[in-house]
Design goal:
This protein is of the alpha/beta class and about 450 residues long. The protein is built from 15 helices and 19 strands. The two termini are about 15 Å apart.
């Protein structure tokens, strides 16, 4: 790798699952604003739903999700009553407009729910919203929680995609992150969902974890590939102990340095691609016939708070504490505190407490950033056709980035600005050049690679 690229390995930049990014949300977008955006949906709109389950029965020390540990089910039962209340309120404001194309259950650990509670949530969603016949239902599965009754419940609610967290199969690494999970246990769950008709399975793998080596990463990838997942997400561990205090349980001396992290990521990516998977964006892989791969080839890949997706819905409604909704007008985030969230929704209110309304400039920059993150390129002609003068004004920024950066992270090829293959691992750093908030913001971010 060129020395000027090595120097950028330790850069800290946003992950760009939205633009503007969440640290720039403000209290001006509240429940009243969010309610107006919900009511402004059109009859023909297609929408996605995200349900957040903010509980785990065991806390993984690497996790940066909004969740809390509970050894008792009573807090979950109480929370679910509030979640049902929010579903009813939001459905009332939507008032039958739009149709659901996708549902995603995330957390936390959605699969710690009792089977009857999973089924009740599925029923509430279909009662409150109209679903397209082809609607997809994705569930994040924690293999330590799952049993046959829960698998049956997931089949009953119509799960079409299962996403399993693997991280690393090495026992030493698992102990260091407080996540013990054998290969056999993972295989049993994969076999269980497939035997119930689920055709799409995703595995999440991590590099940059404590005690990880290139050898342990290679071993994990080899084992994961024997399960023949339809998709693989290969994430870099985000060490943000200032944001997630439980990450202080991980000794930073155990963590690989930037160059080793990069080597782990490249080794894993090559091993996956060598088995016939197509690289999707920065950190996803899919079999050639998977919907994600088809979207990537067609130039219709998108990026939202769940990562890379073939979901083309302009509206994503987040339900549960800390959930973020995306509307054509902007973003709205729910109250993160579970107790405060419950107080807000139990009496029929909405829980939105912060967000941002999109300006014309935000839309242009957001489009550029999404295309860079998804396609590693964007067309100057399409930029101007879509956004007119606002797009034209940003061409100068793109040209300066392409022509004056000694690292040559972005190049001009015909009418398109393209990220060269060797620079693609640094695409977040390239995207940051089009982020007008980045230099002035006070937020701290994770490593670019």
């Amino acid at each position: 790798m060129r020395p000027e690229l090595v120097a950028r390995l330790g850069e800290n930049v946003p992950r760009y699952t939205s633009y503007p990014t969440a640290p720039h949300f403000h209290p001006g977008v509240d429940a009243a604003v969010c309610g107006g955006w919900l009511q402004a949906l059109n009859e023909g709109d297609e929408i996605s739903l995200y349900l957040h389950i903010p509980y785990c029965d065991k806390l993984c020390w690497f996790c940066a999700c909004h969740t809390k540990q509970t050894r008792h089910y009573e807090p979950v039962t109480i929370y679910l009553r509030s979640l049902h209340a929010e579903i009813a309120t939001v459905a009332g404001l939507v008032a039958g407009k739009g149709r659901v194309r996708a549902v995603h259950f995330g957390g936390g650990s959605p699969t710690m729910l009792k089977p009857e509670d999973m089924v009740a949530l599925g029923t509430a969603l279909r009662k409150g919203f109209g679903f397209l016949p082809s609607a997809t239902i994705s569930v994040e599965i924690e293999p330590n929680d799952i049993d046959d009754a829960r698998l049956d419940a997931l089949a009953e609610i119509g799960m079409t995609r299962a996403s399993l967290g693997v991280q690393d199969f090495d026992p030493k690494v698992q102990k260091a992150i407080n996540r013990e999970q054998s290969f056999l246990q993972t295989k049993t769950v994969v076999d269980g969902v497939r035997s119930r008709g689920v055709e799409s399975v995703n595995l999440d793998l991590l590099y940059g974890l404590p005690h990880q080596t290139r050898e342990s990463v290679a071993s994990t990838v080899t084992q994961a590939l024997t399960l023949e997942p339809d998709r693989i997400a290969l994430f870099g561990y985000a060490h943000v102990p200032w944001f997630k205090k439980h990450q202080t349980m991980i000794d930073e001396a155990w963590l690989p340095g930037p160059a080793e992290r990069f080597a782990q990521s490249q080794l894993a990516a090559r091993a996956i691609v060598d088995q016939g998977y197509e690289a999707i964006g920065l950190d996803h892989f899919a079999k050639p016939g998977d919907a994600l791969a088809l979207a990537a080839r067609a130039g219709t890949l998108h990026r939202n708070f769940q990562g890379y997706t073939d979901d083309c819905c302009e509206t994503l409604i987040g339900l549960g504490p800390s959930s973020i909704s995306q509307f054509r007008q902007g973003y709205a985030q729910n109250m993160p505190s579970t107790s405060e969230y419950r107080r807000m929704v139990d009496d029929g209110g909405l829980a939105a407490v912060r967000g941002i309304a999109l300006s014309a400039d935000d839309r242009v920059r957001g489009w550029i950033i999404e295309r860079l993150m998804c396609d590693f390129a964007f067309s100057a002609i399409e930029l101007v056709e879509r956004f007119g003068e606002a797009g034209q004004s940003l061409l100068g920024k793109a040209s300066a980035t392409a022509l004056h950066d000694p690292a040559r992270l972005l190049e001009l090829d015909g009418d398109s600005f393209v990220v060269p293959a060797e620079s693609r691992p640094f695409v977040r750093s390239i995207a940051a050049k089009f982020d007008k908030y980045f230099e002035t913001g006070k937020a701290r971010h994770s490593a670019a690679v």
